[in-house]
Design a protein that fits this description.
The protein is of the alpha+beta class. The chain folds into two domains: 88 residues, no CATH class; 239 residues, Bira Bifunctional Protein, Domain 2 (BirA Bifunctional Protein, domain 2), CATH 3.30.930.10. 41% of the residues lie in helices and 19% in strands. The strands form two sheets. A seven-stranded mixed sheet has the order 1-4-5-9-8-7-6, sandwiched between helices. The longest helix is centred in the first third of the chain and has 39 residues. Bound molecules: 3,4-dihydroxyphenylalanine.
């Protein structure tokens, strides 16, 4: 009995019908219930069924049509429900999620802290260009043209025409001391400035060196500025930055733009001066260079060195940050890895 079998197969099929969206549902309705649908076709066939089977097959066919309609209605309700709930979830009156705020970069935190400490003793901030000329970075700072002191800073020179290597005096500043010359030529003493900024040197990138890093320069020019003033300002800074128990020591050094020149160490803030692997057992760590502004520099900038004197210092922001936060690898500062940066959220 072919018709009965077909109906029974369809009955099974229909109970398992699924539709992922309204298009699929409509396709099902057309397939089974439309004028040209499979069930409608069975009703046509039913006309030729012998009279003695009509009652049984008729009931089966009606059952099939009814179950198909029911299944399709059920699927429609399901789809409507999920659409409604989606619409309900979309609450247009709700305030939007807060924008995820980034964190301050550790180098910015430390730069701001340095500026904050010195601003309390009267320093203001001055900035200068990163692309500089030889005169401001070296010449006016008392570096003679062939002086070996230039070799202390392996400088990036900029080619005037791309690809054509000609000697040029345009360069990426290798230290922020260049801003001293710009300030001293544009302002009259008393001058008390801090010059924070990025500097560039041709160094192979490693955990301890990078081709760019950050410095903060300090400059104070006035009448009767003495080495004792320099020492006192640096001691104040070190205590504010690293704690009241911090000691400093000044070692003689050489910079072309200061005379006398010194390098300053602070008592190791990791072992408290007892000696550890960080300070290589010495109890001291170097943090900056400093000195009395060389009279040649004052004169080159148009300041009368018989009336005025000054002190200057320069420190690496990465170095201070390493000491404060124990960052062991310099490269972390420029990799923008949020796992590193998020650690400074509460600082
Ligand atoms: N410019 C020096 C450097 O990059 C640091 C420095 C030393 C700056 C002594 C100063 C200073 O102003 O007085 O190595």
């Amino acid at each position: 009995m072919a018709l009965k079998d077909t109906i029974q197969t369809l009955l099974q099929q229909v109970s398992g019908l699924q539709a992922a969206n309204t298009e699929e549902l409509e396709a099902l309705r057309i397939k089974y219930l439309s004028k040209k649908g499979e069930i409608t076709a069975l009703f046509n066939e039913f006309r030729n069924v012998p009279a003695d089977q009509k009652r049984e097959l008729g009931q089966l066919l009606n059952q099939l049509r009814q179950q198909t309609e029911e299944r399709i209605n059920e699927l429609r309700e399901k789809l409507d429900e999920s659409r409604e709930s989606r619409e309900e979830r979309l609450d247009l009156t709700r305030t939007p999620d807060p924008i995820a705020l980034g964190t301050r970069h550790p180098l910015s935190l430390v730069r701001e802290e340095i500026i904050d400490i010195f601003s309390r003793i009267g320093f203001t901030v001055a900035e200068g260009p990163e692309v500089e000329d030889d005169k401001h970075v070296y010449g006016m700072l008392n570096f003679a043209p062939e002086h070996p002191a230039r070799d202390m800073q392996d400088t990036f020179f900029i080619e005037k025409e791309i690809g054509v290597q000609k000697p040029t005096d345009v360069l990426l500043r290798s230290h922020t001391s260049s801003v001293q010359t710009r300030v001293m030529t544009s302002q009259k003493p008393p001058i008390r400035v801090l010059c924070p900024g990025r500097v560039y040197r041709n160094e192979a990138i490693s955990a301890r060196a990078h081709c760019f890093f950050h410095q903060v320069e300090g400059l104070y020019v006035d009448k009767n500025v003495s080495f004792a003033d320099l020492r006192e300002a640096l001691l104040y800074f070190s205590k504010e930055m690293f704690g009241a128990e911090t000691k400093i020591r000044l070692r003689p050094s050489y910079f072309p733009f200061t005379e006398p020149s010194a390098e300053m160490d602070i008592s190791c803030n990791i072992c408290g001066g007892k000696g550890c692997s960080f300070c290589k057992g010495t109890g001291w760590v170097e943090i900056l260079g400093c000195g009395m502004v060389d009279p040649n520099v004052l004169e080159a900038c148009g300041i009368d060195s018989k009336i005025y004197s000054g002190y200057a210092f320069g420190m690496g922001v990465e170095r201070i940050t390493n000491l404060k936060y124990r960052v062991k690898d310099l490269r972390l500062f420029s990799e923008n890895d949020v796992r590193f940066l998020r650690q400074f959220e509460s600082c």
